[in-house]
Amino acid sequence: MQIFTSLDLQRQTGDVQRAASQGGVVITSHGKPRNVMLSVEEFCRLKRVAQESVPTHLLARKSPVIRHSADPLGYDVRDFRHASVQMSRDAIEGVHAEAVDAELERVRAVFLRGQR
């Protein structure tokens, strides 16, 4: 079982999750073990061994539902690959140029606030 600090968990969340999926990890805080992270499968196995009920939502094998917000320019973003190809072509051809410029200005206003 690998050991990670709580700071590791904050900075390397993906690495910690991968390690937990492969065999569980211990999360330490101030040098002391505080938590254990396990894969869902291992958690369910341990619940069964302990003859405890397993939460039904953990047993579901459904794919996650991803809700897409409507694209302001009307692209069908449910198929991102197709949408990105179409967006690229439209950008090269200057389609939606005014809308793109307006969006860039909006983003600049948000992210460059105070830097001007």
Give a quick set of tags describing it.
single chain, 116 residues, alpha+beta, 2 domains, 6 helices
Structural account:
The protein is of the alpha+beta class. The protein folds into 2 domains: 53 residues, YefM-like fold (3-Layer(aba) Sandwich), CATH 3.40.1620.10; 48 residues, no CATH class. The protein has 6 helices and 3 strands, in the order E-H-H-E-E-H-H-H-H. A 3-stranded mixed sheet has the order 1-2-3. Strand 2 and strand 3 form a beta hairpin. The model has no long low-confidence stretch (mean pLDDT 86).
Strand count, sense and closure of the main sheet? 3 strands, mixed
CATH superfamily of the largest domain: YefM-like domain
Tell me the number of strands: 3
What is the name of the CATH architecture of the largest domain?
A: 3-Layer(aba) Sandwich
- Please report which band the strand proportion falls in: under 5%, 5-15%, 15-25%, 25-35%, 35-45% or over 45%: 5-15%
Major sheet: order of its strands? 1-2-3
Mean pLDDT: 86
For the record, give the distance between the C-alpha atoms at the N and C termini, rounded to a whole number: 50 Å
- Please estimate the helix content: 40-55%
Total discrete domains: 2
Topology order in helix (H) and strand (E) letters: EHHEEHHHH
Structural class: alpha+beta
Number of helices: 6
